[in-house]
């Protein structure tokens, strides 16, 4: 244990972000470091609980409580407190292939379940994780470790998001020959083209995939499996296949006026912006540009927040965000106790920046869109109205529009960030895989689909989720593939 009285002596100190008005001037990540002494004290706040809820990774009320990949948090907190950073990265890598990703983008369900958070502020687990990972890279402790022997078995992983990458990394360690197919021009899935630069620098993604290539993983980009290469061809060439293709089918908003120019799916906007930053730099024109526009983002979740932050950096005149659900409470509600994930109001980076610019949180809660209004075939406004939620005759929650609350707000760029329906269906169909009632690829024991030798992982099977769950799923699928090929597996489940 770090310091037995640490949590009494030192208060939680998150890494200092740059002020919002400064950081919106560029597309850089915010530094998430603290000076060494402070970071050590933060780790020293850990109580090394007898039952460390931070690490349990259970689903409570349908949400993760604790770390889904069971990171050995109390152990590496203790190592950091003692200054044993090199040992800390070994403990971190034991459960997490990519701590530099989760240390940056994970919403940290571990912190929501930390015991210090019961009547105080939780340990800064996420910042400590990022610090361990970044130090390890900067100190040259993370070097290629190719397997010492090869099994001669060949595995194709389709999709290079965090689930595909984690799966490939694990299988390569077990000595299999892994080829990752990616239809985009760059490796990383949503790590590359979904999550914006200011949350996850693309060099950080490429550094890891370069290392994997040096360790022997083959990457093939610009190839759409199902079109450029068929399922049958992969069956012939490989001993096992993993479908890690994500949940990329976006939810649309089919109200009158949807066809107007200027109404776009969030991912078209975000992907286009990241591509132009990588290919042409910040001075190149974005394919969908918010500069000088009144932007309305429909959807109050994380993708919506990324649209807000990106629109602001592109130079939007104003940004509003519409959310159909009520504003969450400031404190945990009685039916949302610790160690559940706290469903409380928070100002994420995009909203913080909008407030700094225009004086208020851009989110408008309990609002629905009735239609898009346009002139000369381009959107100029949105007709919205207030909604109320209540229980219907069947006892289920239903929404109704509030009479007399209709109004029109200006909009010349509308971004639809209302979540994702699930995986695209063509590829699982070509492989002959069963789907579950929600349209996700059905996974059985060890992540095998209904087709022997074909496995699945990540958003493709669990629906749109989180990077940390994708890593967990990729590791589980790797265990399943290894067992299928070798009868037993040395890889963790
Ligand atoms: C805008 C946005 C922001 C997000 N922010 C966060 C965040 O801050 N923190 C967090 O934890 N999670 C975040 N998420 C969720 C997270 O990114 C996903 O849960 C995670 O990336 C899923 O990983 P995956 O490997 O299953 O799929 P993906 O990352 O979606 O990767 C799937 C890959 O498969 C490829 N592919 C699909 N079909 C084919 C084919 N036929 N042939 C070849 N390749 C194919 C796709 O091109 C894609 O690269 C965010 C999601 C979005 C959309
Ligand atoms: S729950 Fe919090 S205090 Fe307890 S072991 Fe985990 S990080 Fe440390």
Protein model, in words:
The chain is α/β, with parallel strands linked by helices and 493 residues long. It is built from 18 helices and 18 strands. It folds into 3 domains: 6-138, Alpha-helical ferredoxin (Fumarate Reductase Iron-sulfur Protein, Chain B, domain 2), CATH 1.10.1060.10; 154-248 and 421-486, FAD/NAD(P)-binding domain (3-Layer(bba) Sandwich); 252-418, FAD/NAD(P)-binding domain, CATH 3.50.50. The chain has helices at residues 6-9, 20-23, 36-44, 73-81, 85-95, 99-105, 109-113, 125-138, 162-173, 190-193, 202-214, 231-237, 266-279, 302-314, 349-358, 426-431, 459-462, 467-486; strands at 58-60, 63-65, 154-158, 177-182, 218-221, 240-243, 249-250, 263-265, 294-298, 318-322, 363-364, 367-375, 378-391, 397-401, 407-410, 413-416, 420-422, 454-456. Helix 15 links the parallel strand 10 (318-322) and strand 11 (363-364). It is globular, with a radius of gyration of 23 Å. The chain has a 5-stranded parallel β-sheet, with helices on both faces. A 5-stranded parallel β-sheet has the order 8-16-9-10-11. Strands 12, 13, 14 and 15 form a 4-stranded antiparallel β-sheet that branches. Bound molecules: flavin-adenine dinucleotide and iron/sulfur cluster (SF4). Flavin-adenine dinucleotide binds at residues 105-106, 158-164, 181-184, 189-190, 194-195, 199, 224-226, 244-246, 248, 270, 302-303, 306, 427, 458-460, 464-468, 470.
């Amino acid at each position: 244990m770090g310091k037995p009285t640490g949590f009494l002596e030192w208060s939680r100190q998150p890494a200092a972000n740059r002020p919002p008005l400064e950081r919106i001037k560029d597309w850089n990540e915010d530094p998430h470091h603290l000076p060494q002494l402070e970071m050590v004290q933060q780790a020293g706040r850990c109580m090394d609980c007898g039952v460390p809820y931070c690490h349990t990774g259970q689903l409570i009320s349908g949400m993760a409580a604790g770390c889904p990949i069971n990171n050995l948090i109390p152990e590496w907190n203790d190592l950091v407190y003692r200054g044993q950073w090199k040992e800390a990265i070994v403990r971190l890598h034991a459960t997490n292939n990519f701590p530099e990703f989760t240390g940056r983008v994970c919403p940290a369900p571990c912190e929501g379940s930390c015991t210090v958070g019961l009547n105080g502020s939780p340990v800064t687990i996420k910042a400590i994780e990022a610090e361990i990972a970044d130090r390890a890279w900067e100190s040259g402790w993370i070097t290629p470790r190719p397997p010492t022997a090869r099994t001669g078995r060949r595995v194709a992983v389709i999709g290079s998001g965090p689930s595909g990458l984690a799966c490939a990394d694990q299988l390569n360690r077990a000595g299999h020959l892994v080829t990752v197919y990616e239809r985009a021009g760059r490796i990383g899935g949503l790590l590359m083209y979904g999550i914006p630069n200011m949350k996850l620098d693309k060099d950080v993604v490429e550094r890891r995939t370069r290392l994997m290539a040096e360790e022997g993983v083959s990457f093939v980009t610009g190839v759409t499996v199902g079109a450029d290469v068929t399922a049958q061809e992969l069956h012939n060439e490989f001993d096992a296949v993993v479908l890690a293709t994500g949940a990329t089918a976006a939810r649309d908003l089919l109200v009158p006026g949807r066809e107007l120019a200027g109404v776009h799916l969030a991912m078209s906007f975000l992907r286009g912006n990241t591509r132009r930053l990588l290919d042409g730099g910040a001075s190149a024109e974005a394919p969908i540009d918010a500069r000088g526009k009144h932007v309305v983002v429909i959807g109050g979740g994380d993708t919506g927040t990324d649209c807000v932050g990106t629109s602001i950096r592109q130079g939007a005149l104003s940004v509003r965000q519409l959310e159909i659900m009520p504003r969450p409470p400031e404190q945990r509600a009685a039916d949302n106790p610790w160690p559940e994930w706290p469903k409380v109001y928070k100002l994420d980076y995009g909203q913080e920046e909008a407030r700094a610019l225009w004086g208020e949180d851009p989110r408008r809660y309990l609002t629905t869109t009735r239609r898009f209004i346009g002139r000369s075939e381009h959107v100029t406004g949105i007709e919205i109205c207030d909604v109320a939620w209540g229980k219907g005759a069947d006892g289920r929650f239903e929404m109704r529009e509030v009479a007399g609350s209709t109004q029109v707000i200006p909009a010349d760029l509308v971004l639809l960030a209302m979540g994702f329906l699930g995986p695209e269906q063509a590829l699982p169909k070509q492989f002959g895989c069963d789907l579950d009632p929600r349209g996700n690829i059905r996974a059985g024991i060890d992540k095998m689909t209904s087709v022997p030798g074909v496995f699945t992982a990540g958003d493709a099977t669990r629906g749109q989720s989180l990077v940390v769950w994708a890593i967990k799923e990729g590791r589980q699928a790797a265990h399943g593939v290894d067992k299928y090929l070798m009868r037993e597996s040395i890889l963790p489940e």
